[in-house]
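Worked example 4.2. Below are the chains of a multi-component assembly; read each line carefully before continuing.
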Amino acid sequence: MAETPVNLTRSERLARYWVGWHSAVVLCFLIAPILVVLPLSFNAGSYFSYPMAGFSWQWYETALTSPVWQRAFLNSLGIGLASTLIATGLGTLAALGLSRAAFPLRGLIMPLLISPMIIPIVVVAAGFYYVFAPIGLVNSHLGVILAHTALGTPFVVITVTAALLSFDQNLLRAAASLGGNPWTCFRRITLPLISPAVVTGAVFAFATSFDEVIVVLFIGGQEQITVPRQMWNGLRDQINPAILAVATLLVLFAVALFASLNWLRMRSRKAFGQSSQ
Amino acid sequence: MTEPAVNRPALIEPSLRQAHQRARRHESGRALLLVIPLLAFLLLTFIVPTGGLLARSLINDELPGAMPQLSTVLQRWDGQGMPPAEGYPALASELRSAADANELGSVARRLNFYRAEMRSLIFKTARNLPEQADDWRQTLIGIDPRWDEVEIWQLLKRAAHSPTPDYLLTALDARIAPQGGLETLPAEQSIYVPALARTIWISALVSVICLVLGYPVAWLLANLPERQSNRLMLLVIVPFWTSLLVRTTAWYVLLQPNGVINTLLTSLGLVSQPLSLVFNRVGVLIGMTHIMLPFMILAIYSVMKGISPVYLRAARSLGAHPAIAFLRVYLPQSLPGVGAGSFLVFVLSLGYYITPALLGGAGDEMISQLIAMQTNQQLNWGLAGALSLYLVLFTTFFYFVFNRLVGIDRLRFG
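Applying the procedure described above to all two chains together yields the following structure tokens:
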């Protein structure tokens, strides 16, 4: 409770005490594996247990200088950026249509647009393989980009539609009454107001692509090694601490993504009040 | 709208209603236009591939494709007694043409799904086929006496029929009995029903564990002062945003026999031998709970954040015992969050692949892994399609329940 509670009974104090400890243990369970494992990436030895043999950057050197990992990083980045770009464009456009009051067949079309989020990923991946293999899209950049784009669009559609639904239509009417044509109104009023949601959707889409391994396993073939795919290979064959170095970098990357998203949200809240999410 | 109204005197004053309807149609057309690019994109890159895979569970084109004449003959045959006489020359000539066209392998593989000896029978017969024969029936039986068995021909007849219920039945460990009618495989031979049950069981277990672990945490986060709550929230958000493979890697490293946890337990003297925590059910449950827990906490938290503390205080001031007040006033208000979290975790767990594949053992395969196995190793696309169909039906069913109860747009993460 936010305010200092008065006259707590014994059982209430006990319950609070219990909730506190329970939560401490659970939160520990959530964060500890990450915090415990990451320091092992600085291990001078090559085993996965404490005490560490000493401090060393060697696994970072291995990870960052090995051509396989370099290619994996570049591939992941390229595929992620391309699919995010397409997903954001198509998703935003669709959200603009979906949020109009006159939109027909919403109950039919919305589930279709969200379906990449619901259908189990293995089914999707097998489906991609089944259809992409005969037309030569397996083992190609384009195939993975198209697949990741499909997986990323629901995030854009959901976040941007939510922002548009809470958007005050009077602003557009006011702008129109002041002589703005529809395009100007869109560019100067709608776009700035929904841009945080667009960026949020884009970040989600990028994160989805950057973390996706199953589709890449199915249709990436030997060529399209991405970071998660390379980690999967490492876990399957013989695990070496270079994976932990990559994992550490990925955690930092995730924290950075999240922090920038939060910063964006704070800024938009300050700039526009509560009207955007 | 297309021509000036003056040219159409009869329509100078269309009723207001018509004008409104026209404007509305125009509007919905424009709204639809904005969605069409995405819809078309998803149709080509997502709906067609997934639908194609699911439809594959019914398609049975190997035998009809490679041996059309035999297929027609067999489809006309009622399956009782021996097949019609023209079946034997058709089989012989089309075995040869299929072998020449390199299609015999796929036919043999298809038939082998019914019975393990069919592949060798097909290849043996094709190898020993003479150029000419007066009585193809005697010749075929001479090559292999099994061609005199009705059951072999009944299997051919089944393979000649498309669409087929075979894959859908196999995925439920059932099949059409040689005499007709359904029969289920004996328990020790069934694979897929146990796997389906296991998938549901593991998903339900993960949901319950997440609920029990997550509910009090969500309560704490929703009721602490903003600043403290935001700080603790980071402990939920950082794992949530961390790559699944990173988290699975972490557990892989932690749970090993000589990993961090076992080393710690042994050095503390709590256990004398390392516990087996990974490559078994324990590993799967720990890993999946870790990955699903943030979904549960965030879903319950977002509902609890909207519950006003006033009701609870009112109940207390009316003399309710705190436990009663919680059970009768707070808990019911938080149920939408509980439902959202549980459904979400359950639905996501049903299709889970990475964690069971990396942390599970031989007895922990979930349906996703079996689908992957059918496509990558067995190349049995029909069965993969059938398993996928059940998984998709199941998932969408629970998703619609979830959406009805909660609504997907109420979830906001990060």
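Take a moment to check your reading of the output against the notes. Chain B has two domains: 61-163, 191-410. The radius of gyration of chain B is 31 Å.
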